[in-house]
Structures
1.
Amino acid sequence: MRIDVVSLFPEWIAGLREYGVVGRGLREFRPALHIWNPRDRADNASGRVDDRPYGGGPGMVMDAPTLARTLDAVAAARGDDRAPVILLSPQGHRFDQAWAERLATGPGFVLCCGRYEGVDQRFIDARVDVQLSIGDVVLSGGELPAMMIIDAVARLLDGVLGDARSAVQDSFSTGLLDHPHYTRPDAALGRAVPEVLLSGDHARIARWREKQALGATWLHRPDLLDRLTLSAEQERLLAEFISERGE
């Protein structure tokens, strides 16, 4: 897989290669990360890529021709793989685990990071396939959302995580939040590890973990449960969790 990022701050995006298991994966080209600075294709000596908005108003707008020339260079480097062009924007679809899984199964994608007041709408209409948002919040640019998307997708690729089961068991991968996790020592901060996790009974442990995942989702993200059709066993586990809490 290949990921291309169009950003005025390429060093920031490149920092992803420096840390953690995803950084190691990027250094090993799983996926291959390429970063493009639109200033390199500006048609002026100063590398300016923005101008005042027509109609007046605050801020500056990134111009369409410079971004289009940058995408032309990206397309030439990628060849004819028809990778989607994604603009990071608060107006976009909400990025979630389902989006991460969808992107992880393709040939890769191109992320365009806006800055200033926004991006010329003509570039969006002509060259952008989809807009994605990380939430109902406005940031100074698309770099942080782009880094989040790269991290979320990269960890789903073969060989990036030390244990492939880690991605499968993450929150949202099954539509539920993750179950609690514990490590040594057996007792810490006045609390003990749940007995079932020390039992060695893998069937009991699996059942406990699913019950805790259902319970965590019920407590913290009940909206996720509304989207799921629970099996009869999951209904029983959730009822047990609620009863054990006395609610």
2.
Amino acid sequence: MQSKATTVDQYLASLPEDRRAAISAVRNVILKNLDKDYEEGIQYGMIGYYVPHKVFPAGYHCDPKQPLPFAALASQKNHMAVYLMGVYGQPAQEQWFRDAWAKTGKKLDMGKSCVRFKKLEGVALDVVGEAIRRVPAKAFIAHYESVIRPPDKKAPGAAKSKPAAKKSAAAKKPAAGKKPAAKKPAARKRA
């Protein structure tokens, strides 16, 4: 559920007291562990943590006007959530996160990047803090660029190969109204 708030303070003030306390506690852990190159603000109707344009001018590929999202914190209709893009799409980071959470004995309700919770007691705050601390902005940008941008084909030492020409399915079909050419049976070899 996207908030209409334009500042973090407005966002927090709009929450019921119990949710405000839980979101504020998770926020404090994030801020305590956040690399100096990230910024906090409102992004996509949530409290967002992102790489600002002054650090990464290209911005988010889906909307370059937006800074590159790294994490977010939100009060949704049926739960609260912390979104961790530093865990998403990185199997080693995700495995570390799941293992570390399991060691706390708390139940993990996780989607691709979001960790859902109903009460603060359900959050492994130390694991969330470590997940934030483990991914400084420079490392996050490097991973992001490696996934989003194709490798430079003219890089020194890159193998020069031409892709094999493949006919598309449309190119293999005969033109409308024409019958495909009959295939000739293969000649049999005599023994």
